[in-house]
Each structure stands twice: as C-alpha cells, then as structure tokens.
C-alpha cells in the first residue's frame, strides 16, 4: 500500500474545500422559481385595519419599480392601492 506524502494530502483537501466554497459563491440563483409572497396572511381582518409589518429588511421589488422593505409592506400596498401592483422579484429593483 502506497503512502501519500503530506503535500499530496494537503493539496487534495485544500482543492476539495476550495471547490466547495467557490462553487456556492458563483452559482447563479434562479429567483423565478421562488414562491410569490403569501399576501393573504397580511390582509387586515376588519374595516378598521392597522397594519403592523415587522421591521425586517428583506427587499421585495414590485412591477411598479418600487422596492419595499419586506413582503408585508408590499402586500399592504397591493391591498390598499389595487391589483396593478404585482410582485416582480425578491431583492431591490434595478
């Protein structure tokens, strides 16, 4: 049985780790397959509504070109101003 040198083992381990790390960094993310925001859970339950959206930053881009802080703000605007505001993508608008 042949023994590997320390340099060979170091090269094999480091190349495997480098491949694992860099393959995830440069992987393209297909946001078209991500689910649309579940807006029904953010709609108010009564006529005197008080929308309390969480102060979490998770940007949502709408077709009107406006970037919302999170999907709750997007859904409340869609509910208040009409169905012409549609979901475009997660993330900031370009």
TrEMBL record:
Per the UniProt entry, the signal peptide is 1-18
Q: Which InterPro entries match?
A: Kazal_dom, Kazal_dom_sf
Question: Source organism's superkingdom?
Answer: Eukaryota
* Kazal-like domain mapped to chain residues: 33-94
Q: Has keyword Chaperone?
A: no
The alphabetized UniProt keywords are: Signal
Could you tell me which PROSITE patterns the record lists for this protein? KAZAL_1 (PS00282), KAZAL_2 (PS51465)
- Nucleus recorded as keyword: no
What PANTHER family does the database record attribute to this sequence? SERINE PROTEASE INHIBITOR, SERINE PROTEASE INHIBITOR KAZAL-TYPE 13
Protein name, as recorded: Serine peptidase inhibitor Kazal type 13
Q: Which organism is it from?
A: Panthera tigris altaica (Siberian tiger)
């Amino acid at each position: 049985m042949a023994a590997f040198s320390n340099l060979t083992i170091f090269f094999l381990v480091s190349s495997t780790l480098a491949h694992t790390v860099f393959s995830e960094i440069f992987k393209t993310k297909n946001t078209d397959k991500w689910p649309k925001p579940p807006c029904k859970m953010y709609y108010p339950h009564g006529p005197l509504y008080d929308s309390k959206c969480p102060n979490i930053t998770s940007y949502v881009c709408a077709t009107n070109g406006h970037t919302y802080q999170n999907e709750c703000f997007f859904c409340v605007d869609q509910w208040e101003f009409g169905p012409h505001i549609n979901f475009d993508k997660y993330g900031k608008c370009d």
